[in-house]
Every structure is written in C-alpha cells, then in structure tokens.
Amino acid sequence: MAFRGMPSPLGDSVILFIATGAVPALVFQYTSREAMKAIVSSKPLTYYPQVKLFDLIVARFIVEAVKGFTGLILIFFILVCFGVDPIPDEPIMAVGGYCAALLLGLGIGAINVGILSFFPGWQIGYILVTITFYLTSGVYFLPQFMPPQIYEIMKWNPMVQIIEWVRLGYYTQLGVNVDYLYVLGMGFGTLTLGLIMERTLVRRLA
Q: How many domains, in total, are found in the chain?
C-alpha cells in the first residue's frame, strides 16, 4: 500500500496504520496456531515420566510470548528504517492492547490443543479461521466506518476491539469505545477453558 502511494485511512503514514492493525492480529494468529503444535511436535518428550502435556503447553506459551515481543522489536526497527516514528502517543494503551492480543492468542491456543487432541484435522482447518479473522478484524480498514448494524456485529470479534485498543495508543482522535472487560474476559475465559480441557479431555486421550 505504501509503494502504491495509497492514502492512509487514519493519520499521515499508511505503514504505521497497517502496522498497528497487523501486529496485534498476527501475534494472536501465530500464538493461537503455534500453541496447538506443542502436542504434535513435542509429543515424544512425554515418554519421559517427568514431562507432562501441560509442561509442553506452558513451554510453548513462553516461547510464543518471547517470539511475540521479539517480533514487535523487529517491526519497530523496520518502521524506523522507513522513517516512521513507532513510539505511540500513549505507550501504556498500545502495550495493553498488544498484551491483550497475546493473552487471547494463548487462550484460543489452549482450546486448540483440546480440539486437536480428538480432531487432528483442526490444525489445517484453523488456518482458514485465522485468515478470515485477519481479513475481517480491521487491519486494512476502520471498522467504525461500516454501517452501525454491521459494526455492532463486528465488535463481538475481540480482535476488532484489540486492534482498536492498540490504535488508540497511536491515534487518540480515533473516537471508538473499547469494551476492555469483554476483551480481557474473552482472554482469561478462553485460557481457563483451555486449561480445563487439558486437565480433562487431553489427559484422558493421552
């Protein structure tokens, strides 16, 4: 979009606008997708009595969290190379949204582990789900400009609100209301449900 000279829907830099949507969306996407690979790629480790499936899941979560913040630093470096200031006007707001994306990714990833334990095809099917989420969460456009009826439905997608949360840290004039309790509730709720599935469904199938 930058090389084609397309105008930014918000602010002066189209690169910054896309980055504020793509970074949290991709963090959620890759975290939720890679987390469920823990029981596939690392399953031989469970042959050791002291290693449990829960250990693999926690280890994967730590790896994805580190990768996520490493990727964030890399994106900052790329933005600087393009002459874009990556520092948000309200850093706490932007970092809070980024952490919310990571939390939701871990929660959905934990649920994916449970689903994958009895439906291996979900590993491929979930890729289609994440692509749909990525294209409809407002990475390339401003959801609030959609008709009100459609926008209200889109707000049920927590990633729409997470992207708006991050963008509020960069564009204080964005003029949207983020339901922080809903987003955090979805994050902690999915994580809790995923851990319950690990203790019941996954362990029985293991």
A: 1
Task: Tell me phi and psi for residue 178, to 5 degrees.
Answer: -100, 130
Q: Which domain holds residue 28?
A: 14-205
Q: Tens digits of per-residue pLDDT, 124-134?
A: 888 888 888 88
DSSP element (H, E) containing 3: none
Residue 149 resides in a domain: yes
Cβ contacts of residue 103 below 8 Å, gap of 6+? 184, 187, 188, 191
Residue 102's alpha-carbon distances to 67, 108, 162, in angstroms, are 11, 10, 10
- Is residue 4 domain-resident? no
pLDDT per residue as tens digits for the range 186-205: 999 999 998 888 777 665 54
- Give the pTM: 0.87
